[in-house]
Amino acid sequence: MDQLFVHIDQAIIHWAQAVLPDWMAVIVAMKIPIVAIAIFGPVTMMYLTLIERKLLARIQNRFGPNRVGKFGLLQPLADGVKMLTKEDIVPEKADKIAHLLAPILIVIPALLVFAVLPFGRNMIAVDLNIGVLFFLAMSGTTTLFIFTAAWASHNKFSLLGGMRSVAQMISYEIPFVLSVVPVLVVVGSFSTVAIVEAQPGLHWFVFTPWGAVGFFIFFICAVAEVNRTPFDLPEAESELVAGFHTEYSGMKFALFYMAEFMNVFTVSALVATVFLGGWQGPILPSWVWFLLKTYTLILIMMWFRGTFPRLRADQLMGFAWKFLLELTFVNIIVAAIWYEMRSPLNHLTAAAILIVTIIVLFQFNKTEIPKKRIYKYAYAD
Q1: 230: preceding bond cis by omega (within 30 degrees)
Q2: Cα–Cα distance, 11 to 6 (Å, whole number)
Q3: Half-sphere exposure of 244 toward its Cβ, with a 13 Å CA cutoff?
Q4: ∠135-205-6 over CA atoms, to 5°?
Q5: Distance between start and end Cα atoms, the chain
Q6: What is the 3 state secondary structure string of the chain?
Q7: Where do the domains of the chain lie?
Q8: pLDDT tens string 313-341
Q9: What does the alpha-carbon distance between residue 113 and residue 131 come to, in Å, rounded to a whole number?
Q10: Could you give the CA distance from residue 346 to residue 205 in angstroms, rounded to a whole number?
Q11: C-beta separation of 120 from 272 below 8 A
């Protein structure tokens, strides 16, 4: 089953080489992964919205979308038609060019990062030797386009949402990137394929002490990077109307929505690749394992949205700078010690250091709960 997609791809390439000129055959070979990504990305976004709406509905004791198509399966298509036909409203004092370009440009990096994700054995668009670095660099550009949209809207709510987004994403980008360093140290490569191949069978990095902590940090930072609850301050509707996309409607708003959900899929896929063995697993085809792990993480993100309240701004920033960053530095050192010791005690030693670190950081960052006030009343005689 794993080889089916590879055989189809190779058959098309061989046909192109036999029938077409060499230069055109090269173009056809390049177009195959591009077309696959261009189709898979938007379709994934469409049905992730349906899954989230269904899941949140069940959490809230509702049915969710169930009118358009069997079980509401055609609801994403109806939403797409609605977005395409809605009026595009642009504020009079907005920067028209930046207002137009921001939602278009934000989709580009969201699509590009699909290229370095190994969906299964021999199922990757391009195996870059700097795959992880490419992913992190491309995903980091999202901050620029969000702030561009906020600034171009000429709206105080949009600007506040954009500023919050920049502060949040830069703050969480640091532990997000550093949490991958232990894996790169152990594997010795930035290639996503090499990282997956370094976790054969069930020898996933998450089952090591430093891998478990790295997984926790990476996943939490990934949730913050895509502005998901409880880190959705840039879109705090109770304070900022809709945040940075307040002044967007129709298809422009849909492009922001598309980029967000594609980012949800890609960061979950990267977490699965780096810490959960990617497509490694017994019995089932490799691509099934990859999608199973990825969608499990996505469902956890959606569960967060239906469960946790939104953090305050000081709690959000303090958690990144006062807890996650310090824990990330310790985890890098622990991973290096674990790698060099190569003894039966390395797991126990690494676990002990990390547990002590977490307890100390927790005590330093423990919020003081004020004592209950006692009111004394003066009663007239």
Answers
A1: yes
A2: 9
A3: 28
A4: 55
A5: 90
A6: CHHHHHHHHHHHHHHHHHHCCHHHHHHHHHHHHHHHHHHHHHHHHHHHHHHHHHHHHHHCCCCCCCCCCHHHCCHHHHHHHHHHHCCCCCCCCCCHHHHHHHHHHCHHHHHHHHHHCCCECCECCCCCCCHHHHHHHHHHCHHHHHHHHHHHHCCHHHHHHHHHHHHHHHHHHHHHHHCCHHHHHHHCCCCHHHHHHCCCCCCCHHHCHHHHHHHHHHHHHHHHHCCCCCCCHHHCHHHHCCHHHCCCCHHHHHHHHHHHHHHHHHHHHHHHHHHCCCCCCCCCCHHHHHHHHHHHHHHHHHHHHHHCCCCCHHHHHHHHHHHHHHHHHHHHHHHHHHHHHCCCCHHHHHHHHHHHHHHHHHHHCCCCCCCCCCCCCCCCC
A7: 78-364
A8: 788 888 889 899 999 999 999 998 888 87
A9: 9
A10: 14
A11: no
Q: Which amino acid is at 169?
A: M
- CA–CA separation, 22 and 26 (whole Å): 6
Quick check: helix, strand or coil at residue 224? helix
Element (H, E) at 221: helix 209-225
Cα separation values, 203 from 60, 86, 232, 275, 331, Å: 38, 50, 34, 10, 19
Structure tokens at 2: 């794993």
Specify the 3-state DSSP secondary structure of 190: coil
> Contact, 353 vs 330, CB < 8 A?
yes
Q: Considering only CA atoms, which of 231, 380, 202 is closest in space to residue 305?
A: 231
Name the token pair of 352: 């002990």
Dihedral sign (CA 288, 294, 296, 302): negative
- Dist CA 250 CA 254 (whole Å): 6
Q: pLDDT tens-digit profile of 233-270? A: 766 666 666 677 788 888 888 888 888 888 999 999 99
Contact 225, 270 (CB under 8 A): no
DSSP calls for 329-341: HHHHHHHHHHHHH
Task: Tell me the per-residue pLDDT of 338-359, one tens digit each, with 9 for 90 and over.
Answer: 888 776 667 888 888 899 999 9
- Written as one letter, the residue type at 18 is A
